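Give me the fold.
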Amino acid sequence: MKQVLDTSTLIDILRGEPQVTSRFRRAAPGDFLVSTISTSELIAGAAQARDSHRELFAVDMLLRPLTQVSVDESTARRAGLLDVMLRKAGAPIGAADRLIAATALEHGAVIVTSDTRDFQRVPFLVTENWRTR
């Protein structure tokens, strides 16, 4: 099954978190999807770093072999419906997380994240936290 790597997991890989990097290295790059939303978040963070050139290079090297998934109309619609459903349930999540969750649902993928609290609010979304396994 495909896995969408959330921004938190990608940051863990960049920081060399042992449990996370071990799981990442055991799989083929083709097993992973990355939302362009996460790419945007990583670039923004790296660009603000003290050594932004080094950080941007590290982000590029991490993302290069992974499959980038853009937010298409179907994903955007799903994210919009999730927004309404979660707000009505009194459990809203941020726009970026909704789009990343919708991406995973659209691709029938598991989302790998350490931010399970927010993502577990999304019905039918399967999450994994590599920090705790």
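The chain has one domain: 3-128.
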